[in-house]
Structure formats: C-alpha cells, structure tokens
Amino acid sequence: MPRILAVRHSSDGAAVDLAIPQDLVWFSGHFPGVPILPGVVQVAWAIAMARAHLSVDLVGSPVMRMKFQTVIQPDDRVTLTLRHVPAKRAIDFEYRKGERPCSSGRVGVKG
C-alpha cells in the first residue's frame, strides 16, 4: 500500500494524499527500466480507500470504466479523490499529480 499523507473528507467523498514508495512489489517487472504502477493496483487502492474512508460496500467485480492519462511512478506523490455517486450506485475515483490527471474510473457499489 502507499503511505497515506493526509485525508480530507467532503460531503460526497474524500481526497487522500499518497506517497508512492519506490520499493513496492508492484513495480517489479512492470516495466524493467521504466517502472509504472499497474492499473489493477490503482483500482485496488481506490476500492480499499473507499471502504476505509467512505464506508461503502463495493461489488465483487467492480471496474465499470477506467481511463489512463499520466503514469504513476516510484516516489510520486498523488492525490486520490473518491466521490460517492448513489444514483449510479458507484464510486468515481481520480488520481492526480498536482494539476495533472493520472487516471480515473468508476467502481460499482452494492445497494
């Protein structure tokens, strides 16, 4: 898991500031010489953070959509923004490095 630097709650979600350690197992082999954080890990972290900070119950096969724009690499600091969208029975998430979007997506919520 990344190191959590700060958590800010809002009326419909939370923003979690993360430090990405360079020794994460997820960088091993993905890709040699140019390590990037796999999308599946980004989704898993979004699900874990939504459960922890929004207290939502996510469905078993959760990815409804995902878009990549900028890679996340070792030693990056990113903000994961989570927003609960009850009408869509979903959590929207976005990773950003400052003003630059890295990735975004939606995962399903039960109920």
Would you write up a description of this structure?
By secondary structure, the chain is mainly β. It contains 1 helix and 6 strands, in the order ββαββββ. The protein has one domain (3-76, 84-109): Thiol Ester Dehydrase, Chain A, CATH 3.10.129. The protein has a 6-stranded antiparallel sheet, with helices on one face. Strand 4 and strand 5 (90-97) form a beta hairpin.
The CATH architecture can be named as Roll
The string of secondary-structure elements, in order, is: EEHEEEE
User: Approximately how much helix is present in the residues?
Assistant: 10-25%
Give the uncertain stretches in residue-range form.
none
> For the terminal residues, how far apart are their CA atoms?
28 Å
**Total domain count:** 1
- Give the helix tally: 1
Major β-sheet annotation: 6 strands, antiparallel
Key phrases:
six-stranded antiparallel sheet, Thiol Ester Dehydrase, Chain A, mainly beta
Chain-wise SSE layout:
Elements: E1 3-9, E2 13-19, H1 39-54, E3 58-68, E4 77-85, E5 90-97, E6 100-109
Antiparallel strand pairs: 1-2, 2-4, 3-6, 4-5, 5-6
